[in-house]
């Protein structure tokens, strides 16, 4: 059941050939996807062979196979995690009922909206990252970028399959729209804010995969709890791929920090820019930016949308079934920080309305642990500097903090002061220009690394660090 059939035009483990109508619909979407990939996917890669992992089975222990693959020959497809016997709806008004294999009619539009929002982020991130290959710091990093890109492409397939299989004409239209929007486009932007930002350099890419892919993890975990079983199974399989993306981000930033610290020590100076590496205060400003922009992805702190989708049983909490409460939350409250009279106050609100905030805090705690691991690298070098996460109200565009100006420590300030001091806290034009100036041309000799980043501790899939992860034609 879970092994993937690669003999078909669209590899899948959902017996696609048994549903001719659906198969035809997806086969007619497939060339549009390929056209989109050629136009908006990683640039200049069509003939290179990349050491990629490809799913061969959706079972936990056997799905990854590694080998050199031409990007254009990559086989995207539809893979769901194996079904769980007698799975139930585990929360909300339908708690205890059998999980749904079809969309309950009255929940169609809410489910379609969530699947569309999730799906839209996937091609968006590929678009954001499409030029990075031209300035890669090594073949190892180039391979990781392409691995992330092909998997985001497959995550789009996962959501498009659900739209086609369960939402009829509306779903097919949404699937087409997914290929029509463009990250950062003034007329047809991607749906969520962070996915319209630029990812112009590798520090931004690593921050994005560390922080924003981690939002992906938490949102997918919440959707994996869904009573709509096909969504749950899709998200569970997507999560197995997401872990590598966050590793790429965390280790990438860690290696940039490592290199900065080496140069600081060797030259006994904080002023490392003249040695062509990225200084720690610039890394802090990138962290502030990506953290605040990604905080917005959780929506408003108090949200009736979130309450409704929980009540319906379609989007749960992080690790829902491990939480020891009634999983209905009708009579519970949750404390949410509000801006009040120039400061902040924790106010109890109905727990159902606070679900976005709760997921955001789960994510924030996880991000903070990663930042602590980065701080250990700095401490190991005996350098007196600590990266910190800004206050959750800092630089927000969505939710109830979006109307106030706050410095990274959480002090409420005037909008004039924020504008005046913005460049102390967020990457300035000159920070961005400096980091971009380091990117230069691609480093493509096996085992070589750009000056601004340390090599990784080990290679991919037990290969050496100087393995030829990408072979150019
Ligand atoms: N930008 O009640 P509210 C990933 C909209 S990342 C623009 O607060 P709700 C990945 C909202 O849509 C994970 N608009 O929101 C990572 C709503 O609009 P409508 C992606 C925003 O519904 C890296 C209105 O504001 N997955 O996978 O409770 C690489 C009122 O909103 C934003 C998901 O997000 C924003 N930031 O929560 C690749 C999961 N925030 O409907 C991939 C699916 C809110 O009134 N999505 N709005 O026009 C959801 O669960 C929810 O839609 C949200 C919003 C959590 C995003």
| Residues in β-strands, percent | 5-15%
How many beta-strand runs?
A: 7
Q: What is the global morphology? A: globular
Give the integer mean of the pLDDT values. Answer: 95
Sheet/helix structural class: mainly alpha
Annotated CATH topology: Ribonucleotide Reductase, subunit A
| Small molecules bound | benzoyl coenzyme A
Largest sheet: 3 strands, antiparallel
Task: Count every helix, treating DSSP H or I runs of 4 or more residues as helices.
Answer: 11
* CATH hierarchy: architecture: Orthogonal Bundle
| Model regions low in confidence, pLDDT < 50 over at least 5 residues | none
Q: How many domain units?
A: 1
Euclidean distance between termini CA atoms: 37 Å
Protein name: Benzoyl-CoA oxygenase component B
Organism: Paramagnetospirillum magnetotacticum MS-1
InterPro entries: Aromatic_CoA_ox/epox (IPR052703), Benzoyl_CoA_Oase_BoxB (IPR017635), Ferritin-like_SF (IPR009078), RNR-like (IPR012348)
GO molecular function, one term: oxidoreductase activity
Summarize the structure.
The protein contains eleven helices and seven strands.
Tags for this entry?
7 strands; binds benzoyl coenzyme A; 473 residues; Ribonucleotide Reductase, subunit A; 11 helices; mainly alpha; three-stranded antiparallel sheet; 46% helix
3D architecture notes:
This is Benzoyl-CoA oxygenase component B. One of its GO terms (biological process) is phenylacetate catabolic process. One of its GO terms (molecular function) is oxidoreductase activity. One of its GO terms (cellular component) is cytosol. The protein is mostly helical and 473 residues long. It has one domain (16-471): Ribonucleotide Reductase, subunit A, CATH 1.10.620.20. The chain has 11 helices and 7 strands. The protein has a 3-stranded antiparallel β-sheet. The longest helix is centred in the middle third of the chain and has 39 residues, at 229-267. The relative contact order is 0.13. It binds benzoyl coenzyme A.
């Amino acid at each position: 059941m879970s092994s993937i059939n690669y003999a078909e035009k669209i590899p899948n483990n959902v017996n696609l050939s048994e549903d001719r109508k659906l198969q035809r619909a997806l086969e007619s979407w497939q060339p549009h996807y390929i056209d989109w990939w050629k136009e908006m996917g990683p640039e200049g890669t069509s003939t290179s062979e990349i050491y990629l992992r490809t799913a061969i089975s959706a079972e936990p222990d056997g799905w990854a196979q590694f080998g050199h693959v031409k990007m254009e020959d990559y086989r995207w497809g539809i893979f769901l995690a194996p079904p769980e016997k007698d799975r139930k709806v585990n929360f909300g008004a339908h708690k205890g009922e059998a999980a749904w294999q079809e969309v309950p009619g009255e929940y169609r539009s809410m489910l379609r909206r969530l699947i569309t929002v999730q799906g839209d982020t996937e091609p968006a991130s590929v678009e954001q990252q499409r030029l990075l290959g031209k300035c890669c710091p090594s073949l190892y990093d180039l391979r990781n970028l392409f691995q992330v890109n092909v998997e985001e492409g497959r995550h789009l397939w996962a959501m498009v399959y659900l739209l086609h299989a369960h939402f009829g004409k509306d779903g097919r239209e949404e699937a087409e729209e997914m290929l029509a929007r463009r990250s950062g486009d003034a007329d047809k932007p991607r749906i969520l804010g962070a996915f319209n930002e630029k990812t112009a350099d590798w520090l931004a890419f690593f921050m994005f995969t560390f922080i924003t892919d981690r939002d992906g993890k938490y949102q997918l975990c919440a959707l994996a709890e869904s009573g709509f079983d096909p969504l749950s199974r899709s998200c569970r399989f997507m999560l197995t791929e997401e872990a590598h993306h966050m590793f790429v981000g965390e280790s990438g930033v860690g290696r940039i920090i490592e290199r900065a610290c080496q140069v600081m020590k060797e030259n006994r100076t904080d002023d490392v820019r003249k040695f062509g590496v990225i200084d720690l205060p610039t890394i802090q400003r990138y962290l502030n930016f990506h953290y605040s922009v990604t905080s917005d992805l959780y929506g408003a702190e108090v949200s009736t949308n979130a309450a409704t989708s929980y009540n319906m049983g379609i989007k749960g909490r992080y690790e829902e079934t491990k939480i020891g409460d009634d999983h209905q939350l009708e009579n519970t409250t949750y404390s949410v920080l509000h801006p009040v009279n120039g400061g902040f106050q924790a106010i109890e609100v109905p727990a159902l309305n606070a679900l976005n905030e709760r997921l955001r805090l789960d994510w924030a705690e996880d991000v903070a642990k990663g930042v602590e691991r980065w701080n250990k690298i700095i401490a190991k070098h005996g350098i007196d500097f600590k990266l910190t996460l800004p206050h959750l109200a800092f630089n927000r565009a969505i939710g109830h903090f979006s109307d106030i100006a706050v410095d990274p420590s959480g002090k409420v300030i005037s909008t004039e002061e924020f504008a005046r001091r913005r460049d102390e806290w967020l990457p300035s034009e000159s920070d961005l220009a400096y980091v971009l100036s380091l990117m230069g041309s691609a480093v493509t000799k096996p085992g070589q690394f750009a000056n601004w980043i340390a090599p990784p501790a080990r290679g991919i899939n037990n290969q050496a660090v100087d393995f030829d992860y990408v072979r150019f034609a």
